[in-house]
């Protein structure tokens, strides 16, 4: 009689995941089959070979500590080489540690599969290890918040173990449980990302990041491979991603500007691109001479969203505005905005400035608390930056209660400029192989301190009062950290 046992599997896209396998070396033949089974399913789910890291330990008893260290190590590694948006311009595979590639060479692990084979012997050894290891592995995943897949066989006989690795000696070869663990890892990694970002959508099929953006560069021709073209390949898409606030993933697809690429991309890749999208940022070139075609692609993308992600927000970015003569910019922009508004139909198109609020549900709350913090520090202004990208996520002068009298006289473009300056400085540090931690500036007009606020943010405090010491500002930041970790905890950090 066939068995009803076993998981029902959903399909998830593992292409943006980094996964570790930690295995024991006891009972080698069985271990090897299980590890191979897990790897095969990880790859089938789209996890790239370079994002599968395999480590071994002597026996199963060593698994929990090894998993815990591997998780922590990858998080430290990721933090010290945090990539930024500027890194997107680095060629994929560049050795520059600041480059962002889809291979996630230093991303933290999204899941760990612990594989061991315990076979009952003559003593109580087996019982103790089974019990301890299963409890400890559970503790590692609960303590770290990273899924640890329980790939430890606890078999009473050799045959039981062999059958569970799909290499049974009798009539029944059995089923390789390593395959199930590979799939479980991809599913749990994906779902945990989503849950951490407050996304509880019903993932029955496919695609998977917590928040997926799809900026389609309709009018941005990118290089394409002539040989592939000759062979009739129709897709030339550069995919990249950026981590934002730890758990949010910004997926970037830079599509070929040529119609053939675009057409094929919007048909064959449709469900992959538009499923589970939280936000679509569509980039229009203000200089484009083919507005009719651009709008056609844009409408096609809106259709894709209606089909696969009805609740997604759409943001439009009109770029290359700096190429328009200064006196004409406002009129050109208004014209473009009206055109795009018309093309957007029922989709509510939001202003760029509200992207942050869409991504970070408690951004408003952060603004309010930054305001309180600014008052406590007697600061002219306090700005909260996302750690990896240095994008501004909250400021003390952007709460609902209109800008304060003092700050509204400041340059409205200061956030953008500050962000660019810090990114440039951080890049210089990385070129010099120096880690960037904090920054202090003491000038005649003001003192500015940039320091870590939470594990995903940096804060900049600008004080005009010369009596206030830099050390006092730093102490205030230290004291505020716990509160800001709490404020972000609900939505930003797993
Ligand atoms: N008996 C099995 C072991 N025993 C070794 C322990 O796991 C451990 O390595 C040792 O006690 C040193 O700390 N390991 C297995 O993986 N499977 C067994 O059946
Ligand atoms: C160190 C061991 O693994 C050993 O003492 C276990 O013995 P058994 O598997 O016969 O209980």
Walk me through the structure:
GO terms for molecular function: 6,7-dimethyl-8-ribityllumazine synthase activity; GTP binding; GTPase activity. With 494 residues, the chain is of the alpha/beta class. The protein contains 14 helices and 15 strands. The chain has helices at residues 28-44, 63-80, 125-144, 158-163, 177-196, 226-231, 259-268, 270-274, 291-308, 329-343, 355-359, 363-376, 414-431, 470-489; strands at residues 19-24, 52-57, 111-119, 148-155, 212-213, 237-244, 248-255, 277-285, 313-319, 349-350, 381-386, 392-395, 439-442, 447-454, 457-463. A five-stranded antiparallel beta sheet has the order 12-11-15-14-13, sandwiched between helices. Strands 2-1-3-4 form a four-stranded parallel beta sheet, sandwiched between helices. Strands 5-8-9-10 form a four-stranded parallel beta sheet.
Task: Produce a short descriptive summary.
The chain is α/β, with parallel strands linked by helices. The chain is flat.
Strand order of the largest sheet: 12-11-15-14-13
What small molecules are bound in this structure?
Answer: the ligand Nc1c(NC[C@H](O)[C@H](O)[C@H](O)CO)[nH]c(=O)[nH]c1=O, the ligand CC(=O)[C@@H](O)COP(=O)(O)O
How many DSSP-defined strands? 15
Cα-atom radius of gyration? 26 Å
Kindly state the mean pLDDT as a whole number? 77
Function: GTPase involved in activation of the TORC1 signaling pathway, which promotes growth and represses autophagy in nutrient-rich conditions.
Pfam family, one: Gtr1_RagA
Family: Belongs to the DMRL synthase family. Belongs to the GTR/RAG GTP-binding protein family.
Catalytic activity: (2S)-2-hydroxy-3-oxobutyl phosphate + 5-amino-6-(D-ribitylamino)uracil = 6,7-dimethyl-8-(1-D-ribityl)lumazine + phosphate + 2 H2O + H(+)
């Amino acid at each position: 009689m066939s068995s009803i046992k076993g998981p029902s599997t959903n399909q998830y896209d593992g292409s943006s995941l980094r996964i570790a396998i930690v295995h024991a070396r006891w009972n080698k033949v069985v271990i090897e089959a299980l590890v191979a089974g897990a790897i095969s399913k990880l790859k089938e789910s789209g996890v790239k070979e370079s994002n599968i890291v395999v480590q071994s330990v002597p026996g199963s008893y060593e698994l929990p500590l090894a998993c815990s260290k591997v998780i922590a190590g990858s998080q430290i590694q990721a933090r010290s080489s945090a990539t930024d948006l500027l890194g997107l311009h680095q060629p994929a595979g560049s050795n520059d540690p600041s480059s962002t590639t889809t291979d996630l060479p230093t991303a933290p692990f999204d899941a760990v599969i612990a594989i061991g084979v315990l076979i009952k012997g003559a003593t109580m050894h087996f019982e103790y290890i089974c019990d301890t290891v299963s409890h400890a592995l559970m503790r590692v995943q609960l303590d770290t918040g990273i899924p640890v897949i329980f790939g430890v066989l606890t078999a009473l006989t050799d045959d039981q173990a062999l059958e569970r690795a799909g290499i049974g000696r009798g009539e029944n070869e059995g089923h390789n449980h390593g395959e199930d663990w590979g799939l479980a890892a991809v599913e749990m990694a994906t779902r945990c990302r989503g849950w951490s970002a407050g996304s509880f959508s019903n993932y029955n099929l496919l695609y998977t990041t917590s928040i997926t953006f799809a900026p389609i560069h309709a009018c941005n021709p990118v290089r394409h491979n002539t040989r592939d073209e000759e062979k009739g390949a129709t897709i030339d898409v550069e995919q990249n991603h950026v981590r934002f606030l730890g758990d949010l993933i910004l997926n970037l697809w830079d599509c070929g500007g040529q119609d053939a690429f675009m057409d094929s991309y919007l048909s064959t890749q449709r469900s992959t691109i538009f499923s589970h999208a939280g936000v679509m940022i569509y980039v229009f070139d203000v200089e484009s001479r083919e507005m009719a075609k651009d709008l056609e692609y844009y409408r096609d993308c809106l259709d894709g969203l209606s089909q696969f992600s009805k609740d997604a927000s759409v943001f439009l970015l009109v770029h290359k505005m700096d190429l328009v003569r200064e006196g004409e910019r406002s009129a050109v922009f208004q014209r473009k905005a009206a055109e795009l508004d018309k093309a957007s139909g029922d989709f509510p198109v939001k202003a760029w400035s509200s992207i942050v609020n869409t991504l970070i549900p408690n951004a408003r709350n952060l603004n309010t608390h930054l305001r309180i913090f600014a008052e406590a520090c007697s600061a002219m202004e306090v700005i909260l930056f996302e750690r990896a990208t240095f994008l501004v996520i909250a400021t003390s002068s952007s709460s609902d209660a209109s800008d304060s009298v003092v700050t509204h006289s400041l340059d409205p473009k200061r956030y953008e400029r500050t962000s660019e300056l810090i990114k440039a400085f951080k890049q210089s540090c990385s070129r010099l192989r120096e880690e960037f931690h904090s920054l202090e500036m003491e000038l005649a007009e003001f003192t500015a301190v940039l320091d870590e606020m939470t594990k995903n943010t940096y804060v900049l405090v600008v004080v005009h009062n010369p009596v206030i010491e830099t050390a006092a500002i730093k102490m205030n930041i230290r004291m505020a950290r716990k509160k800001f970790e709490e404020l972000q905890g609900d939505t930003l950090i797993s």
